[in-house]
């Protein structure tokens, strides 16, 4: 019996490693499907009261494509178009940085050629080259396949979650009460991270966008959307937009606007993360998640898993804490020792 068990466990380990290799090229899209599943599950439960499960899943997947996927692709297309336009204008010399270069030269005591450096970089980017076209086509194909995989996984997550839950409970060698506790902890953490990230990003991006609109910065709506996306990353998120904008205003003889944007970004935009995130996290978890743990999980998750690590990095670290807490409660006390 022990030999049979060892062979089965070894075979399972080999197949698990091979499965990880198969999934790893599309890991971000698998994570995206799981991320979308959580806010859609309550809607799915309500829809199944009026429609068959597969019809309800199909409706939600179609709605996700219309509300999330298509706008994201449109934003990506707009961003690429704006970047190409700016590079084209830099390459032709239409955009210059003479005043900024003069200010930096006076500050640093040496000549600075921003325009020349950017023109050289822009000329080196050959959008028309065969390699560039093939690279863009390959990246586009990967994104299309990945998004299709995300929608496919999302459909079956919504439809087959009860079966998956039953299978996990029967397969994982843990008592039912411990499994229920771990599942509850994981779900609380997932909701806390998801809602805190999305809520804080929207609030922070909109607040920063109001500052851009008040100062009359061009394309304020576009930059607001970009800041909402970047604000998912704490500390340095929206700063990547309003920080350079404030410096640019200072260097282009608009000191009042530059100082206002810097102070506004630091005090108003920056502090929304410090105050609102703990409030939201505490709302959805019984045990408070340390902000340092959240930040380490987010930044480490980005390095380990890419963009989706922003969400799943804190979940992994917080789940480890939950597992250790359960272990301590179940096995950490000696028999007869008071709890």
Summarize the structure in words.
This protein is mainly α. It has two domains: 25-160, no CATH class; 174-329. 83% of the residues lie in helices and 0% in strands. The longest helix has 42 residues, at 130-171. Residues 125-134 and 334-339 have low confidence and may be disordered.
**What is the CA–CA distance across the termini?**
38 Å
Helix content: over 70%
Task: Average the pLDDT over all residues and give the rounded result.
Answer: 76
Protein structure class: mainly alpha
Largest sheet descriptor: none
Q: What's the tally of helices?
A: 12
Radius of gyration (Å) = 25 Å
Number of strands: 0
In short:
The protein is mostly helical and about 350 residues long. Helices cover about 85% and strands about 0% of the residues.
Write the layout of secondary structure elements.
Blueprint: H1 2-23, H2 27-47, H3 53-92, H4 98-108, H5 114-124, H6 130-171, H7 176-215, H8 220-230, H9 239-251, H10 255-284, H11 291-305, H12 309-332
Helix pairs in contact: 2-3, 2-6, 3-5, 3-6, 7-8, 7-10, 7-12, 8-9, 9-10, 11-12
